[in-house]
Amino acid sequence: MNKNVNIKNIIIDKPLKLDCGQTINNYSLAYETYGSLNETKDNAILIFHALTGDQFVSGINPITKKEGWWSYAVGSGKAIDTDKYFVICANVIGGCMGSYGPSEINPNTNKKYGTTFPVITINDMVNAQFNLLNFFNIDKLFAVMGGSMGGMQTLQFVNNFPDKAKVAIPIACTASHSAQNIAFNELGRQSIMADANWENGDYSNQNKNPNKGLSVARMAAHITYLSKNGLQEKFGRKLQERDDLKFGFDADFQIESYLRYQGSVFVDRFDANSYLYITRAMDYFDLIKEHHGNLSKAFEKTKTKFLIISFTSDWLYPTSENKEIVIALNAIGAEVGFVEIESDKGHDSFLLKVPKFLNTLGDYIKTAYSKN
Known about the structure:
With 372 residues, this protein is α/β, with parallel strands linked by helices. It has helices at residues 122-129, 131-135, 149-160, 179-193, 211-225, 228-234, 254-266, 272-284, 287-290, 319-331, 355-370; strands at 8-12, 16-17, 23-24, 27-34, 44-48, 74-75, 80-81, 86-90, 105-106, 111-112, 141-147, 165-171, 305-311, 336-341.
C-alpha cells in the first residue's frame, strides 16, 4: 500500500502526553478536507472515522481507488452538503493512512515502530485531532460527528473541549465498551498474533505480513457489523456457484465466500498492528469510569446540542447503550434529540444507503445551521 499518494498531513510540534504516560512530539497527522471554509469560519464540520476508516470520507480514495467510506452521506447536495459546509476528517493516530502509527518509521532506530509504538486511547486520538482547529484558524466548529468509534471520539471531544462545537452527532456508539465488544476485539487481536508472520509485531521490518490472521480478524468483526435478519435475507443457505454440497472445506455457502472476500480485500489496505492498537483504544474507552460512574459529568460544562442516532438491528452498539447517553444528557438539562432508525442492515447501517437515516441527518444539520 503506497501511503504517500496525495496525502495531506501536518506535523504537530506541540507535545502531546498520551494516557499511557509517554509524550510524543513532531508527529504526523494525515487529513482530508471537502468544501470550503467560509469567511466567518462557522461552517466547519469535523468528522471522526470508525475502526477501519480513514480520512477519505467521500469521493474516490486515491490509494484504494474505491469510494470513500461515507460517500452516501458526504458530498454535493447530500446530507452533509459540501457545497455548504467545510468538512475535515483526519486519520487517527495509531492508524495506517499517513498519521503517526505503528507502520511509521521510528527516527531513533530507522525501523518501523511495530509494537514498540505507544498504546493510544480515544482520548489521545481526539487531543491529536484538536490541532486541526488551530491549523485552519477555526475558533469553534459548527459540528463534530461520527459513527461507531467515530461516535466515541465525538463524545470524547465534547468532554475535552466543551465550548468548541455547537452541534455533536454521535451515531451508533457507546460511552463505554461492553465486555462483549472487548471479547470480539480480543478474538481479532489473537487471530493476528497467532499468525506465524506476525513476528511479535516486527513483521514489516522482516518483509513479512500476517495477512491470514488479519483476514480472519476482519471476517469475525464483519459479522458483528451485520444483522441476523439481514444475513438471512441476503444469503440464507444459498450455495456458492455449485448445485450441491462438496463435503469439504471450500466455500460451499455464499456467506462463506462473502466473508473470505471481505477478509482478503481488507489486508490490502490495512495494517495488522494498527488493527491491534485501534481495537485496544476502543476497549479502553470508558467515559463512565472516567467520571466515577456518572456519565452526566462528561457533558455538564457544555452547551453543545446533541443528536443521538441508533439503529434497530444494531446489536454491536444497541439502542439501549445509545439511550444511556441520552439519559445522561437529559439529567443535566442538555439540548438533546434522539432517533432510532428502522433498519435491517445492522451496525453498518450508518455507512449504507438508508434513506431515513440520511434524511434525518441532513434535516437536523440543515435546521441546526440555519439557527447558527
